[in-house]
Amino acid sequence: MSKKLFLKGVSYSYIRQIITLITGIISLPLLLNYFGTVNYGIWILIVGLAGYINTISFGIPSAMTTLIAKTSNQNEKYQILKKSFYLLGVISFVFLAFFIFVLYFNDTWIISLLGNIDEEFIPLTKNMFILFVIFTLIKLPLNLYMQFFTGMNTVYISEIYQIATAIVGFITVLVVVYLDLGILIFVLLWLVGQIIVNIISVFHVFVKYNYLNKEVKSLQCVTYNDILKSGFAFFQVGIAASLVWSTDNLVISHFLSPELVTPYSIAFKIFTYIFMFSAIINGVIGPMYGNAYANNDWDSIRKFTSVIHKLLPIVGAFVWIFLIFFAKEIIILWTGKEEAFGGYLLIFSLGLYGYALSYVNTYATLVYSLNFANKTLYIAWGEAIVNLLLSIIFIQFLGIGGVALGTALSALFISMILPNVIKKITKDEVIYDFKYTRHHFLLLVLPLIILSLYIINLNIINKIIIFLLISIIYLFFSWKLLGIDDRNILINIIRRKNN
Predict the structure, then answer these.
(1) pLDDT greater than 60 at residue 317
(2) Where are the domains of the chain?
(3) Environment class of residue 243 by beta-carbon count within 10 Å: exposed (0-12), middle (13-18) or buried (19+)?
(4) Each residue's pLDDT tens digit, 406-444
(5) Is residue 375 predicted with pLDDT exceeding 50?
(6) Crossing angle of helices 344-369 and 276-294, rounded to 10°
């Protein structure tokens, strides 16, 4: 990939994240007031099922992108797309036919799947669910054309389509709320808008790559079996990720109520928006790992991952403190509803989850950049299982905060295992030193978290003053605890990002 294409891909990725952030911030209170707390919770619950539905692709999209990127023959790249589309099209059609067949005889299982839906919301819930599943299955093979651009090293085009999808969804929200249309009309327009963007991407591929239409006669041409075999590892990762990211809402709906999905999802959105910094930093550092690995430069890999291993938890702990201080005020101001705040245990647990992810993301970026993902599948499954079990146990005693705590502890558990796994798969080339992180947590993070919990009931002015003071102290001593070498590496990474 040329430097120009790389920079365009990174730039559009950042633009997509910013647009997603802005449209999400504006859309949430509009939808919450438009739907009402219960209907909004049901909608979030249904949308969360997309992760599970996407797993029926059996990893074909990710496998297709990887195989296209590895293939030098341009015509063969197009044949991989065609074969992937055919495979996923057949799979989607079979599941769609099966879904409609099952609905014809019985649809009561929908409510059993989604949880404790009150009688008055059951008809609407069923219709929303049916529309969502049908359109999602139709979209699956069409999505391949968006991802084809990534395989062809034009990531920025794929990002443009992601941006277009976000904007179309946002326009749908504005139109439906302004015209006071029904909820089912919103769902239908929202889904149709996504399909239209997908169809445009199909024609875009046909036009841009119209020269790639020859049959490949090479003996090394990728077969259907190659695509399925390559997709199997991605399929397993997808299922495990769905269990981690999509199960919480189902657990809440089954053991409590869909109404409580709303405050949980709102808190989780704030968490997701704030922790975009992690994706941005990893987006910069990932290619550095790959380039160093290609040159067998383990010294650079160790330097980069060592400083990121310290930097991300510094930012993660700072966000954790910030959430405890101001999450309640932000949520109530954002939504205009007191009941949208899910409690301090929820906020504390999501902050802890973000802090744990600061470590996990450091390890995961290294593992994926060095192409060792297939050697850590059992860890992904372990996190998924532990998360589900802890969430089910804790929700019985701690409510929705317990679900978040289960998710946080499972991530913390993984963060303790991955360093030893990395040491093994890199044959002792990468060994993490935890001396700094221990000192940083015990001397700074833990005392400030305790202080934050102690003063949560102060008025907002006092909290702002105290937060500003402890922020200065925290950032100053976090920087001081870093060694000179780590500071220099961090400065060089920032300079490289700006260049």
Answers:
(1) yes
(2) 1-234, 246-499
(3) buried
(4) 989 988 888 888 888 888 888 888 888 888 888 889 989
(5) yes
(6) 20
